[in-house]
Amino acid sequence: MIFAQVMAGGTGKRMGNTERPKQFLNLAGKPIIIHTLEKFTLTSDFEKIIVSSHPKWVQYTKDLVAKYISDERVVVIEGGAERNDTVMAAINYIEENYGAIDEHTLVMHDAVRPFITARIIADNIAASADFKAVDTVVGATDTIVRANDGVITDIPVRDEMYQGQTPQTVNVAAFRDFYNQMSEEQRMSLSDSAKVMLLAGYEVGIVQGEESNIKVTRPFDLRVADILARESMDV
């Protein structure tokens, strides 16, 4: 079975002094998370669409979903302390309700990337047939430099460099098995699910993202996203 996870557990500290985490801020009249969820409800492949929320905001999230989303596949659960703990919370939910089956696939996406497209979602699902892990990327347009202590140590070939987006897609059993073997230090240092799968020895496939698949992190991003959302409504 194929499951979606919309990750909404962050508190949005980089957004500044806001009364709600950034995923709940309004974008063209609706909360960002609702824009994101609406994109996922358009894909019929998902058995469940799991929303992982910060424990303090679970009921608030449930109320928003009830107000805006009429899709029984959407369920709200608590996230974890770190990103991969949040992934494991969704995996635990899947296995408790659908069994620990090796074929389960989880498509994970940031709640604050509201411009995800049906094409990107479909490409992640298709690539998961060939890879235990999939990442969504766009080619780097700027030169990437590696530096240490304020000094450049390497300038990689730009044509080989990509910027990671989401969704990231994993085989549930493969992720679970390696995560359970990791030390606490490894779990704290690895915030990227694709990197977890790389360390586990799996090839990670890539699918092409979109420049518009932006992450709303700072106030400037919110202003840009609001313009994009209003433009899409006018089309």
UniProtKB/TrEMBL annotation:
CDD domains assigned: CDP-ME_synthetase
Protein source organism: Weissella fermenti
Pathway this chain belongs to: Cell wall biogenesis; poly(ribitol phosphate) teichoic acid biosynthesis
Catalyzed chemical reaction(s): D-ribitol 5-phosphate + CTP + H(+) = CDP-L-ribitol + diphosphate
Site note Transition state stabilizer, residues: R14, K22
Pfam families: IspD
UniProt keywords, alphabetically: Cell wall biogenesis/degradation, Nucleotidyltransferase, Teichoic acid biosynthesis, Transferase
Binding annotation for CTP: G80, A81, E82, R83, N84, D85, T86
Name under which the protein is recorded: Ribitol-5-phosphate cytidylyltransferase
InterPro entries: IspD/TarI, IspD/TarI_cytidylyltransf_bact, Nucleotide-diphossugar_trans, TarI
Annotated positions for site Positions ribitol 5-phosphate for the nucleophilic attack: R158, K215
